[in-house]
Design a protein that fits this description.
Low-confidence stretches of chain A: none
Mean pLDDT of chain B: 96
Strand content of chain A: 25-35%
CATH topology of the largest domain in chain A: Uridine Diphospho-n-acetylenolpyruvylglucosamine Reductase, domain 3
Strand order of the largest sheet of chain B: 2-1-5-3-4
CATH superfamily of the largest domain in chain B: Beta-grasp domain
Low-confidence stretches of chain B: none
Number of domains of chain A: 3
Largest interface: A-B, 29 and 32 residues
Largest sheet of chain B: 5 strands, mixed
Shape of chain A: globular
Structural class of chain B: alpha+beta
Helix content of chain A: 25-40%
Helix content of chain B: 25-40%
Distance between the termini of chain B: 46 Å
Oligomer: heterodimer
Order of helices and strands of chain A: EHEHEEEHHHHHHEEEEEEEEEHHH
Largest sheet of chain A: 5 strands, antiparallel
Number of strands of chain A: 14
Number of helices of chain B: 5
Radius of gyration of chain A: 19 Å
Number of strands of chain B: 5
Strand order of the largest sheet of chain A: 4-5-10-6-7
Radius of gyration of chain B: 16 Å
CATH class of the largest domain in chain B: Alpha Beta
Chain lengths: ~280, ~160
């Protein structure tokens, strides 16, 4: 077997230096809950392991009205934070339904995003809330909108020399709702996930976000459904129309968890339910 | 590139040389002969390898051993003290919460983590907290009964 190197840097600057040096040979590991199954099942043969659990990226704070979460924050901490409960209750709900206690205790919010699974629970409330991701390399840093981050299943715009260090969530506007359908309540990978947010002026929609998951190769922002909602009075008929539009924009597949046919049916119901809840219907 | 790993196992300092790809479960079972924690799926789904790291339940099969450096690891071997069972272990016996026993060590540890944080959980709290640990014999009701028996002070000295 090939010799594997292991590094446990204690500063972001050291970590990105290692990434610059080893490039695609480096496997970044935080909680390990997504990386380790691949190593255990020989789907990934790491050459260089970079453990980022010691970088001090475990923090939740308010900064100029924004909610700022370190990428290394364990998912369990989202459930314990008053700040997250106040500013992003739909993110708390996603964390509550995520996997199981022994995964949430070490699995991180940054890992859930960077792993780029279309079934990643935390991505959808983050998309609905217009979250931004801070990507850091030895050359500098950039801030990108979360919907611009994903390029395919397990693929992102993150360079081999870059590290996701922080998630920034703008001050809450309107009401965000999260919904998930899995095969069972606990420890289920989703069949469909949805994150929505509506800003209402009376009953008239001023802004809408509809994000749909496990329904396309990447997490999907449903622009047509959003356009349909904006400027109109939100009622049950409009909600049903928007839900149908959202699912119309998706491209679900048959897989071990469900058929594409079922995903469309369930997805339409899930989006409609989330929008109705966000609109207080 | 082997490295030295030092951590605390059931209150005792352990130092050994490990390969970077060895998991904590590999080290516990194959190197240190602590076979209480079981290898079920190696994928994080079944929960039988769950240990406590700094008091939190963690899958030892998904933990690179080197990432446990400096941390406090508790396995089922560290739960009974001075030959006396922990009340949770006693409650599992009293409530018939054990059939084949494969899931039991991790069930006891996860129950311990729950009760250490929340000494008086509701039935729902117990089910939610322990839902990541599977029991193929189907003793779930008895397991939850056992945990609640400890919470309600119904377990006599072990």
């Amino acid at each position: 077997m090939q010799d594997v190197s292991y590094f446990a840097p204690t500063e972001v600057s050291q970590a990105v230096k290692l990434l610059a040096e080893h490039g695609k040979k480096a496997t970044v590991l935080a909680g390990g809950t997504d990386v380790m199954p691949k190593i255990n099942y020989y789907e990934l043969k790491p050459e260089v392991l970079v453990y980022i659990g010691g970088l001090g990226l475990d923090y939740i704070k308010a900064e100029g009205g924004q909610l700022v979460i370190g990428a290394g924050t364990p998912i369990a901490k989202l459930l314990e934070s008053d700040l997250v409960a106040k500013q992003a209750p739909s993110l708390v709900e996603a964390a509550r339904q995520h996997s199981s206690v022994a995964i949430r205790s070490v699995g991180t919010i940054g890992g859930n995003v960077a792993h780029a699974s279309p079934a990643a629970d935390l991505v959808y409330p983050l998309m609905a809330m217009d979250a931004k991701l801070k990507l850091v390399s030895a050359k500098g840093e950039r801030l990108v909108a979360i919907e611009a981050f994903f390029t395919g299943p397990g693929e992102t715009i993150l360079g081999a020399d870059e590290l996701l260090t922080e998630i920034q969530i703008p001050a809450a506007k309107g009401k965000a709702v999260y919904g998930k359908l899995g095969k069972r309540k606990a420890q289920a990978c989703s069949i469909v996930i949805v994150g929505v947010r509506l800003e209402l002026d009376g009953k008239v929609c001023r802004a809408a976000r509809v994000a749909l998951g496990s329904m396309a190769p990447t997490p999907l922002r449903c622009a047509k459904a959003e356009a349909l909602l904006v400027g109109k009075t939100v009622d049950a008929a409009l909600v049903a129309q928007a839900a149908a539009a959202a699912v119309g924009e998706s491209s679900p597949i048959d897989d071990v968890r469900a058929t594409a046919w079922y995903r469309r049916k369930a997805g339409t119901a899930l989006v409609a339910r989330a929008l109705a809840q966000a609109a207080g219907l | 590139m082997k490295q030295i790993l030092s951590f605390t196992l059931n209150g005792e300092q352990v130092d050994l040389v490990v390969k970077p790809t060895e998991t904590l479960l590999d080290v516990l079972r194959e190197r240190l002969n602590f076979t209480g924690m079981k290898r079920g799926c190696d994928d994080g789904d079944c929960g039988t390898c769950t240990v406590l790291i700094n008091g939190e339940p963690v899958r030892s099969c998904l933990t690179l051993a080197l990432t446990a450096a400096g941390k406090d690891v508790v396995t089922i071997e560290g739960v009974a003290k001075d030959g006396k069972l922990h009340p949770i272990q006693k409650a599992f016996m009293d409530n018939g919460a054990v059939q084949c026993g494969f899931c039991t060590p991790a069930m006891v540890l996860v129950a311990k983590a729950l009760l250490d944080k929340n000494p008086h959980p509701t039935r729902h709290d117990v089910v939610y907290y322990m839902s990541g640990n599977l029991c193929r014999c189907g003793c779930y009701d008895e397991i939850v009964d056992a945990v609640l028996a400890v919470a309600n002070g119904k377990v006599k000295e072990a």
